[in-house]
Design a protein that fits this description.
Length: 418
């Protein structure tokens, strides 16, 4: 019988790698706190309609990538392909808009997309995301971009580039789409099948097509920055001013459109070695689109697998945690009993400890202690139990000291302080 493997495009997080995820998550939680941002968790699946409305029907995500199925009650549900629409749904459903604004949220979430699996492209991946609701000011765009840059800067990564663009408001978009259609008209027959439908419904999406022939056609297409209205232009100028004031370097890339339909005005990407690690922008119409009040918003998603991949490629060391402070060895039945009691008591002092559960010889127990990187060992034999004292061995320098087993305060202190 063949063994069952994980579905294509998914990855197990194995215990040997867990510390890396914890390290990254802890850094990002701390950073979020510094910015006054609080955590939200939303369900793993939503009504499909949320993403049709939120992400946009002409996007790659909705057209090709969603894990959509009918549940046993005949409802169409979708595993979340991204975190923004669910956060907006929760914000509206719990009337968070009635609280003091802005509302600043962060999350860690898996996301599910039926993708062509390749380097940095999985079918279940994970994101750290931020959403800020309620402010239309460019200062928040800059502050949240500064957070994204700091989040990546925490790991000392070089060669990050920040690209920004403005997609304008629906008014600018209409003018741009018309100009784009005019430009694309003569090449219409050469566009891919998906782009032919985009041509009618959402021409700007064609700029995001990954097909070689479409890329060629759009190379010299008009750019939206030439079509944005005065208000959008001022917002973009303000953003650049704030980024300058914060000392954040950026490139204006008028070709960025991003993969989701909800963006208005600012969009940005942070790229490392040709791979987008973080992408986001402003989405001033989405909350209303999903049935909430008219409120502006800004956010981003940062891919954690891609970040970990870059960290690894650049040789950035993530500190390995200490797993076990003390291994208590035992010889025989009575001593097993005492060893188990001792470690259970010591854990109450915050000491990470283990004892033997495999009936190993003392020699094998010490070998095991060494393998798991225990900082200290202590062996409980009959004499030790009778005298209520034992030898505590520091595994890094071999030093031994006699400790009183009735004074756990002292023993715990000794272990913690060394
Ligand atoms: P791309 O252009 O690479 O497909 P995207 O525009 O679809 O990215 P977003 O939807 O903005 O990406 O998601 C934000 C971040 O999530 C990306 O910058 C990336 O780091 C990560 N990400 C997106 N799709 C995947 C995937 N299939 N596998 C791993 N990470 C992903
Ligand atoms: Mg994509």
């Amino acid at each position: 019988m063949s063994s069952i493997q994980a579905p294509k495009g998914t990855k197990d997080m194995l215990p040997s790698d867990a510390y890396k995820w914890h390290y990254v998550e802890e850094k990002f939680r701390k950073l979020s706190k510094e910015y006054g941002i609080r955590e939200i968790r939303t369900p793993m699946f939503e009504h499909t309609e949320l993403f049709l409305r939120g992400v946009g029907e002409t996007t790659d995500i909705v057209q090709k990538e969603m894990y959509t199925f009918e549940d046993k009650g005949g409802r169409s549900v979708t595993l979340k392909p991204e975190g923004t629409a669910p956060a907006v749904r929760a914000f509206i459903e719990s009337s968070l808009y009635a609280d003091a604004q802005p509302t600043k949220l962060y999350y860690f979430t898996p996301a599910f997309r039926y993708e062509n699996v390749q380097k940095g492209r999985l079918r279940q991946f994970h994101q750290y995301g931020i959403e800020v609701f309620g402010s239309k000011e460019a200062s928040i765009d800059a502050e949240i971009i500064s957070l994204a840059m700091r989040a990546l800067g925490e790991f000392g990564l070089n060669d990050l580039s920040l690209n920004i663009n403005s997609l304008g408001c629906p008014h600018c978009r209409e003018k741009f789409n018309n100009a784009l259609k005019e430009y694309l008209k003569e090449n219409h027959d050469n566009l891919c099948a998906t782009c032919k439908t985009r041509f009618e419904r959402n021409p700007m999406r064609i700029l995001d097509c990954k097909e070689h022939k479409c890329k060629g056609i759009t190379e010299k297409a008009p750019v939206i920055l030439d079509f944005i209205c005065e208000e959008c232009n001022t917002h973009f100028d303000n953003l650049k001013g704030y980024l300058d004031a914060l000392g954040i370097k950026y490139n204006v890339d008028p070709k960025i459109v991003r993969g989701l339909d909800y963006y208005t005005k600012t969009v940005f990407e942070i790229i490392h070695d040709g791979l987008t690690v973080c992408g986001g922008g402003r989405y001033d119409k989405l909350i209303e689109e999903i049935g909430g009040p008219s409120m502006p918003a800004f956010g981003f998603g940062l891919g954690l697998e891609r970040l970990l991949m870059i960290i690894e490629n650049q040789g950035v060391e993530i500190p390995k945690p200490i797993y076990i402070d003390l291994f208590v060895g035992s010889i025989g039945e009575k001593s097993n009993f005492e060893a188990l009691k001792l470690i259970c008591d010591l854990r109450k002092y915050g000491i990470y400890c283990e004892c033997d559960h495999m009936k190993k010889s003392v020699k094998a127990q010490m070998k095991y202690a060494n393998k798991i990187g225990a900082r200290f060992t202590l062996i409980l034999g009959e004499d030790e139990i009778a005298n209520k004292s034992a030898k505590l061995k520091n595994m890094s320098n071999g030093e031994e000291s006699i400790v009183n087993l009735t004074d756990l305060d002292f023993l715990a202190k000794l272990i913690k302080e060394q």
